[in-house]
Amino acid sequence: MIFDPTYFLYVLPALALSLWAQVKVKSTFAKASRTTTSTRWSGAEVAQRILASFGLDRDVRIEETKTKLGDHYDPRNKVLRLSPDVYHGNSAAAFGVAAHEVGHAIQHAKKYPLLVVRNMIVPLAGFGSNASIFLIIIGMLIQSAGLLVFGIILFSTVVLFQIVNLPVEFDASARAKKLLVEQGYLQPAEMPMVNKMLNAAALTYVAATLTSIMTLIYYISVLRR
Ligand SMILES: [Zn+2]
Question: What is the pLDDT of residues 112-125, one digit of tens each?
Answer without folding.
Answer: 999 999 999 999 99
